[in-house]
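Thread: quick sanity check before group meeting

JM: Hey all, I'm pulling together slides for Thursday and realized we never actually wrote out the predicted structure for the chain we discussed last week. Dropping the sequence here so it's in one place. If anyone has concerns about the input, flag it before I start.
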Amino acid sequence: MKLPTYEVDEPDINVSSLIDMVFLLLAFFIATASLVRSEADLGIRLPGMLAQAQSVDMADEQVIEVRETGRVVLNGLEFDAPDSVDLPQLVSTLTRYRMASSAAKAEPMVTLQGDDATKHQRMIDVMNACARAGIKNVTFAAGGE
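JM (edit): ok, ran it. Output follows.
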């Protein structure tokens, strides 16, 4: 008896979805690889030497006391009138402090210390004076005394 013979079909591998996935992965890696900066592109400022004729002793920070009466005291010296909003004397002193700090390659820092009964507007006036002088690092001291 003769047995029927069946033709065996060769299995087909559908590679179109595989190619699609490879292209998607390739596009993903190309898009994300440009986000990483190489070490040569990083801007690094190395510390340098500043030649000065004479050494300058500077305080790390300046403490501005704002009294209850509205008086502004910096390093024991009173600046401007209690009703002055612009505080021009304080601005000029803080500007000189900022310029001296930048010459010494230091960050100018100011700490505001107000009494418990100091008006908020007076503290804002002093902060505005610091901003006009170009000082960005301003902090507040806790407690009035």
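AS: nice. The first strand starts at residue 62 and ends at 66. Residues 16-33 form the longest helix (18 residues).
JM: adding both to the slides.
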